[in-house]
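Session log. Operator J.P. requested a structure for one protein chain; no other inputs attached. Running the standard single-chain path with token output.
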Amino acid sequence: MVERLIEFSLRNRYIVLLLAAGLFVWGWFSIQRNPIDAIPDLSENQVIVFTEWMGRSPQLIEDQITYPLVSNLQGIPKIKRIRGTSMFGMSFVYVIFEDAVDIYWARTRVLERLNYAQRLLPQGITPSLGPDGTGVGHIFWYTLDAKGIDLGEQRALQDWYIKFALQTVPGVAEVASFGGFEKQYQLVVDPVKLQYYNVSLMDIMNKVKANNNDVGGRKFEMSDMGYIIRGLGYVKKKEDLEDISLGVYNGIPVRVKDVAYVQMGGDLRLGIVDQNGEGEVVGGIVVMRYGENADKVIKAVKQKMADLQKGLPAGVTFKAAYDRSTLIEAALQTIKGKLKEEIITVCIIVIIFLFHWRSALSIIIQLPITIAISFILLDSFGLSSNLMSLTGIALAIGVVVDNGIIMSENSYRNLSEWQNKPDPETKKAEI
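Structure written below.
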């Protein structure tokens, strides 16, 4: 088989050269299209189901949320295993699929089964899917440099302006906010006044919930004109909460401000984010979508942040806390430099040892073609150009060169034996 292949290549050298040129061009386009990252993504093919039920113990979360979800998600096809984790107020279920399964097909199957499993959960509890990213999808962290602006305003700026804009960048799965205070209206209730006006905490909760709502009416005609009636009840400022009526005491309406003090405050938090010991900061984590080009996404995020900078308040700027593009560029430059050095060294050694430019050229020309074919395979299998894959290519160059040298020396040996082989007719004449 090998002899026939060599014979075919020698008899049809132009076809072989044309095929090699086509593979090189294909490989060049594969290099341009192949995703670039610093490290390989070895995470499992998983879908995360997150459920929040604040204030409940881990045992209650396990019994009423985690166990029903795990039990009902087990019937999904092509699942390897399911892991469940219960903690205070939160439940995480990790559905791990086979490696060959498309991640978005898996998310669709999980979502379909969740619609059925939700009826087994407590009322008002809705599980949600995690972002379509992986464990190495945190490609960019940033903080806000906003001196003179309180942490609540910074967090509001991050949640309602910056986050929504960055999520529109192609390849971004999610932008997770961290730090600062999430603004909320807080009612500081006076228990003495509650007892005096005979109002309970549940009355306050129900009245506030009912009044923070828009209601629909109907259309009616009057004087040959149509009017649409609807009630506007969404809370827009602190005074709207203070004026909510809770009931009547001795013919006088009792409002929220009569029994409680309404203030703007921050939500409870379990930790803070500090940068370099200089104080608390607010920022976000950019999570890359599964299978995207990390270097390309980071460049698009930076471009979007430059556009957002024009709309930020005076004195507010972005600071990069973690930028993987620096690691990507450093890793690629190192590997590219080593590849060039290795190719040049190999070319010199081959020319010196063989001392025949045609044989050396036949060996040297294999190097770029082999590297191009390697990128064709990387692109076909969905593997990224990273430190590990490029190092493997660099190590394989020695094997490619050894193979070429062995083939060339073997060809020289066979040709030499054939040329020095005595002619049978000449041998007969000598006898």
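Operator note: The mean pLDDT is 85.
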